[in-house]
Amino acid sequence: MRRLGILISGRGSNMIALLDAARKPGWPAPPVLVISNRPDAAGIAAAEERGVRAIAIDHKAYGKDRESFERAMDAELEKAGVDLIALAGFMRVLTPWFVNKWAGRLVNIHPSLLPKYPGVDTHARCLAEGDLVHGCTVHQVTAGVDEGPLIGSAEVEVKPGDTPEILAARVLKAEHLLYPRCIAAVARGGGTREREDIGVSGDVVRLWAPR
Ligand code: GRF
Would the pLDDT of 144 be above 90? Predict the structure, then answer.
């Protein structure tokens, strides 16, 4: 069993997907702590409602000293016995110190089919390129932003008339399917990647996730 910590910055819908998956029998990584760098994040209450301890560590209190902010997070993660971290909409770039310390135990979900569109505004960039397929990727975190070995991905169709908001909502459905599968596989020590097509309220999500 791995003890899961989840880092968030906002609404935490991916965190909720993980917490809901964690209630099912056989889940290998019980969530023990949620940390938000924003005290007003809606995800804090959502975690508490699901019986998971959630705290805020405000990065602003540390000014430009990113490493001291991370050392404060790290102390809480260690105290809670966390040994696997899922970034779920955590909007801070982590320093090499934190990334190296948690190497192999630090996972992120990104709303594009990496290596396409690292960084922000992924949905608008995908539409501007005229892509037919978009999606999300789960990957190990390394020092480069949105780099690191890929664990799984999920594809959705780009439809005529899509706006960045419509496309973001379709990708988010895929994120909620993909992230729990990938975190469970990492917690179990790996898995073979399998393709699975799942219909979710009018959309088809094509998963490439380890099992
Ligand atoms: C998701 O699209 C995630 O991929 C990205 O930020 C968004 C966070 O959404 N990194 P939520 O807070 O999980 O709802």
Answer: no
